């Protein structure tokens, strides 16, 4: 009883404080909800996925906006890795640990994943495609991100550039990543702006030597032999 | 000016079922190349001055022409023009690996090694008659192609005009903004200031301060020169008759016409965008108010009515249908705008206790003015639609800043070691430089409108 009497008030205060902090955190979360679109975690995820091929779980959730490519999937990966693909990692990991518990958890995760996949598409055959594609897509993103960064660093906009302008450029590469050509396919209407974008691509190519492109031929053919760049500044003062 | 975040999105649309697959295949067949595959979106950049090399102009490329002519170092004038804009970084000629004067002599690799984005080459030669021909070419070093070339035939005295024209064309090609290097500045030069022997000169010069020429001389002060949109006439206030008088002066003919000599103050004349009317501040009815005088009919129209406030420093809206002015009607000087058709007055500035000498930037959406903050005067820049304001630079300016017609630069008077000098600041606040002046005190600069043709007798 004494305990309650002595510590009742502090307890209530502590609870209130916690509730307050929790509320503040939640609010802060909400306020910054606009930012996440910037896709910062992409690189980390992508790199992880490049290392261990069949870890499909994180992908489906984190990149719902970036749907899989149509081309690459049917190429090679289709035949085998289907249901087996997800298994290897569970096996590799659990061994040193208390096996039973691990396996149960992995199994549950797998079940859940399977269910998710089932929901995503009614056709079973497509399940593996999605997993496979998410890997490919992550791979693609890694290279695209590296290209993008080099171009951002090389892009100097003319003073007539405005935030509502946009120009689309077509880039052609060799399988080794050499720049064959770059041309404006959708003009911004401002020749100086268009040229600044074109110059950025050429300069990035020179700085990098070659553009980073995936060694897998299918992936290269699907996304990097020809791709487009959309230049639309969002950070200008006017 | 920062980099690092950018979005990437695969362009391909979601694929779920056979139908979608078929559709995708169909599109591929349809040849919609751009709509499939990867698209990388670039939303940020790293803006820096454009690197350009202006090679010293060469002699005659044509064998039948007499020797090279270079009374003015055209390349130096062009380099200096471009550098002054703050948007270019020009390579000095000593650091060039080669100095080509014709297309065949250009090796783009040389210029890429030097990290140049653009290259200007040119040549000048004496024509059999009297003229001098000047030709230049602008190259995009990265794309290895010629962007523009022009040729003029002029008198020797106009070589500087040609050089400024070249600067204008290069500037426009690269920045997308019309160049204003061929324009003029007008200012008041005071010799022996503060003494009885003081002489006031109205001086016309190139924007780089060269080729000064006196338009008008008097022993009494000259104030507030401003240009007509035709770049032929100027209006200013003189005290030559002992009291303030507004005069419109034709530069070429030298003809002067007295426009306002009312009782009290006659000040701050500004031409309307069509050049037919003159806005001014007069105190003929007691205190300073804004008036508009029609130059043809001489009809005077009173614009403001604030019996206890000073209304001055009028400036026209782009369409000539509104007047922006400074008024202390709220207790402190602030910027107001009056719509001439509806007579509606609204206040434009709210930050700080002193905002004055406003000028609209081309486009009419942005305003620059003098803003006092904590006792220090700054040039402020305000976006009228979004109502955001930025401080461009700290300044000691005590006279009205005047904008270049392309809105990128602003000239103003300041003091250096007790002497009045002219300085220029870019409207993004990045560049600031001072103009050389021979002697005496320099005041009241006014930047001319665009001048369409080369100076008289050209071509």
Question: What's the short version?
Answer:
By secondary structure, chain A is mainly alpha-helical. Chain A is 54% helix and 9% strand.
Describe what this molecule looks like in 3D.
The complex is a heterodimer of chains A (238) and B (459). With 238 residues, chain A is mostly helical. Chain A folds into 2 domains: 38-154, no CATH class; 162-238, Fusion Protein Consisting Of Minor Coat Protein, Glycine Rich Linker, Tola, And A His Tag, Chain: A, Domain 2. Chain A is built from 8 helices and 3 strands; from the N terminus they run ααααααββααβ. Chain A has helices spanning 2-31, 42-51, 58-62, 88-92, 99-120, 125-154, 191-208, 217-224, and strands spanning 167-173, 179-186, 226-231. In chain A, helix 6 crosses helix 7 (191-208). Chain A is flat. Chain B has 4 helices and 31 strands. Chain B has helices at 18-29, 74-84, 108-113, 159-175, and strands spanning 8-10, 38-42, 50-54, 88-91, 118-126, 132-140, 145-154, 184-191, 199-206, 213-218, 222-227, 233-238, 245-250, 256-260, 266-271, 277-282, 289-294, 300-302, 311-316, 322-327, 334-339, 345-347, 354-360, 366-373, 376-383, 388-394, 402-403, 409-416, 419-426, 432-435, 441-447. Chain B has 459 residues and is mainly beta. In chain B, the strands form 8 sheets. In chain B, strands 4-3-5-6-7 form a 5-stranded mixed sheet, covered by helices on one side. The model of chain B is unreliable at 1-35 and 61-65 (pLDDT under 50). Chain B starts with 7 loop residues before the first strand and ends in a 12-residue tail after the last strand. Chain B is globular, with a radius of gyration of 27 Å. Strand 3 (226-231) of chain A pairs parallel with strand 2 of chain B, so a sheet runs across the interface.
